[in-house]
Specification:
The structure holds two protein chains of two kinds.
Chain A (H helix, E strand, L loop, with lengths): L1 H5 L2 H19 L6 H8 L3 H15 L7 H18 L4 H25 L4 H20 L3 E2 L4 H8 L1 E5 L7 E4 L1 H18 L1 H11 L1 H6 L4 H27 L2 E2 L6 H11 L11 H20 L4 H25 L10
Antiparallel strand pairs in A: 1-4, 2-3
Helix pairs in contact in A: 2-14, 4-9, 4-10, 4-12, 4-13, 4-14, 5-6, 5-7, 5-12, 6-7, 6-12, 8-12, 9-10, 13-14, 14-15
Chain B lengths: L1 H22 L5 H9 L8 E5 L6 H17 L2 E4 L7 H13 L4 E4 L4 H13 L3 E5 L10 E4 L3 H16 L4 E6 L5 H17 L4 E2 L5 E2 L4 H14 L5 E4 L4 H12 L6 E4 L3 H9 L6 E3 L2 H16 L9 E3 L5 E5 L2 E3 L4 E3 L10
Parallel strand pairs in B: 1-2, 1-3, 3-4, 4-5, 5-14, 6-7, 6-8, 6-9, 9-10
Antiparallel strand pairs in B: 11-15, 12-13, 13-14
Helix pairs in contact in B: 3-11, 4-5, 6-7, 8-9
Chain lengths: 331, 346
């Protein structure tokens, strides 16, 4: 049992993370600065949160390319209602979340009930929602947001005294990430949702014969993803103190990269929420460490691409050799 | 099980190697940063300069100037930015730069509002912040290095037109989009300057022609204007995309003798049109000097040479530059023509 946990895919990812962390700490001046490390984690919260529902979606052999556009659209809804329509902030925030749910339900509805592959639907809505955000905002940005709202992403939950270097602050938004990941893990590993999700990804026809309502479950997953995108949009807007139509451009790719590095199979059938979190940490630490080391940004992109290829090969190879006990090795 | 464990070890090894490779270049910048700066023992200033994006000619030119200033002043200058003009990437990179404890950061922000929280954080950590090329919110930076004031750009373009056509020119203006902020300010200033200095000049269309930062559209609109306005004798194309587009339209129509075209663009985009005489003279500020001045301002601020309330500041080979409140002004734009265009590569 212990051995199984120690050699699980998640554990291996954790070792990789530790090894990278140790290597950067040893060789890069200024890397091991807890204050800065925690500050940097603020930028990982939104992609990390969205990576959780994305893990489920990819585990059903689906994909969602529209998450970045939905985050932007929700931010614009918030900005328009709060600043132009003078709604109270909480109402505008709720409306933004609802917008995310509706946008995503539309995606999910089209793909599962009209039977169009999610790749095609979300590729289309990626452009559609981004265009909608541009059109609604007329390319303006909304930035006159109250301090209390900015606290969501820029505030500190508590401080940890760390001697001479001054206190280390624990960023408030990390709680949102932790809650999302724990909820995702419980659903994936401790409830029927995860089992059915992987079942659909493995073989949807078989799943249907096993009396699983695949369409409804998928629609529910896509809608939940919209909910997380809507909440993520609040954090994203707070982080940059600005809602604008080109926010979160390319976020879908960051999110998918985390999920894939985390060991969720892109062809479906297996998903790991903890893996996605580790994927997020690995990409984040790699980028941060390379930047600290003074590697120029176009080279950083090359390293991240290299990491993705190595992981993709590793995952395929794990799946082919480890088929015997794949079900058993979940952490 | 055993075989699998071994193979997993191999993969972990591979990833470790990747991590190791990642750390390889880590050691290089360290001597780089210290050798240049640590010569005077008491001062080893480190300046980070961030453009809107890397890999385009305009910002490559600013890098040349920034590095030159660093060498002159004996400070280490790191020049890096995101690969796309994305403000979120700039913010994350700045987060790293704060951790790297730069003494000053000079940045050309992609979006003033969104970059400001992280700049405020940098200032709280004692880092001096200069903005250049574009500004952030005033609270988020110490000084803004402004490439040109709007009146000086407007004046340079109107003067070029007056010299090219005469003080009674009938002209049109080709802009980017009708909502482009910089362009609208410049057009207001052009009109003010026209009323004061060239009252006999006429703007044939009060609403400017829009080219939406699309070169092909600029060509099309120019061709149409040449047909529609028979008494047209001058045109301004006031974005770096519109001017080469308009020049192409003029060249195709063979109308370079009838209509005098000028505006704002980079020399590399205009070289052919200047060489073949389609465009005689055009205007732009010098990006090399812009990067140079940004670094000078950062170092001046750190060394106490640039103090609040100053009205002038000595910036190396640029001499005395004007300081207006919290803005440092690069000065008058350059006028490019056949004789000087080959001295510039951006």
């Amino acid at each position: 049992m212990i051995r199984r946990i120690l050699t699980s895919r998640e554990s291996i990812l954790f070792y990789v993370f530790l090894a990278m962390f140790a290597a950067f700490s040893a060789f890069t001046d200024g890397f091991l600065d807890w204050f800065s490390l925690f500050e940097r984690t603020r930028y990982w919260v939104v992609p990390g949160m969205i990576a959780v529902p994305m893990t489920f979606i990819i585990a059903t052999a689906g994909i969602d390319l529209s998450v970045g556009s939905i985050v932007a659209l929700c931010g614009i809804v918030l900005g328009l209602l709060y600043q132009d329509a003078q709604w109270p902030l909480w109402a505008a925030a709720c409306a933004a979340v609802v917008a995310g749910v509706l946008a995503r339900a539309f995606n999910g509805g089209v793909s599962s009930y009209l039977n169009i592959p999610p790749l095609v639907v979300t590729l289309a809505t990626m452009a559609l929602f981004r265009g909608l955000a541009m059109g609604l905002s007329k390319a303006r940005s909304f930035s006159d947001l109250p301090e209390g709202f900015r606290w969501l992403s820029q505030g500190d939950a508590f401080s940890i005294p760390a001697g001479e270097a001054g206190p280390v602050f624990f960023p408030a938004p990390l709680f949102a990430l932790i809650v999302t990941v724990v909820a995702g893990w419980l659903l994936m590993r401790r409830s029927w949702v995860g089992r059915f999700t992987e079942c659909i990804g493995e073989n949807e026809v078989a799943a249907r014969f096993a009396a699983i309502d695949a369409r409804r479950l998928k629609l529910a997953l896509y809608t939940a993803c919209g909910l997380v995108c809507g909440v993520g949009a609040l954090f994203n807007t707070a982080l940059y103190a600005t809602a604008k139509a080109d926010a979160a451009t390319g976020m879908e790719l960051d999110v998918i990269a985390c999920v894939v590095i985390g060991g969720t199979r892109i062809s479906g059938g297996q998903g790991s929420v903890i893996g996605s979190l580790l994927g997020l940490l690995i990409i984040g630490i790699l980028k941060y460490g390379l930047e600290m080391a003074g590697v120029r940004s176009h080279n950083v992109v090359i390293f991240v691409g290299g990491l993705l290829i190595v992981t993709a090969v590793f995952n395929e190879w794990m799946a082919s050799t480890g088929g015997r006990s794949r079900r058993g090795e979940r952490a | 099980m055993n075989k699998r464990n071994i193979s997993r070890l191999i993969v972990v090894g591979m990833l470790l190697a990747l991590g190791g490779v990642a750390c390889g270049p880590a050691k290089q910048p360290a001597p780089d940063a210290s050798s240049g700066a640590k010569a005077p023992a008491q001062e080893s200033l480190k300046i980070g300069v961030m453009p809107k994006l890397i890999g385009i000619p305009f910002f490559k030119a600013t890098e040349v100037g920034a590095k030159k200033a660093g060498k002159e002043l004996g400070v280490a200058v790191d020049f890096d930015g995101p690969v796309t003009n994305d403000v979120t990437l700039q913010a994350q990179m700045l987060e790293t730069w704060i951790a790297k404890k730069y003494d000053a950061i000079a940045i050309a922000p992609n979006a003033p509002d969104a970059i400001s929280p992280v700049l405020e954080k940098a200032r709280k950590r004692g880092i001096k912040v200069i903005t250049w090329d574009a500004d952030a919110l005033p609270d988020a930076r110490d000084y803004f290095v402004n490439q040109c004031t709007a009146p000086s750009v407007a004046k340079a373009m109107m003067d070029v037109m007056a010299e090219g056509v005469g003080p009674d020119a009938k002209y049109l203006i080709l802009t980017g989009s009708l909502t482009a902020a910089n362009q609208n300010i410049w057009m207001d200033e052009m009109e003010k300057y026209r009323q004061a200095k060239y009252p006999n000049m006429t703007n044939l269309s009060e609403t400017p022609k829009a080219s939406e930062e699309d070169q092909a559209l600029a060509t099309q609109v120019t061709t149409d204007c040449l047909k529609a306005y028979s008494d047209l004798d001058g045109m301004f194309a006031i974005t770096s995309v519109a001017l080469p587009g308009a020049a192409e339209g003029l060249r195709k129509a063979g109308a370079a003798e009838r209509v005098f075209l000028t505006g704002l663009a980079t020399p590399n985009a205009m070289r052919d049109y200047v060489k073949d005489g389609t465009v005689k003279r055009f205007v732009l500020w010098n990006p090399v000097d812009l990067g140079y001045l940004a670094v000078h301002a950062a170092v001046g601020l750190l060394r106490g040479e640039l103090e609040p309330g100053a009205t002038a500041f000595s910036a190396g080979r640029l001499g005395e530059v004007e300081v207006a409140g919290d803005q440092i002004v690069l000065g008058d734009p350059i006028i490019f023509d056949k004789d000087n265009i080959d001295q510039f590569d951006f």
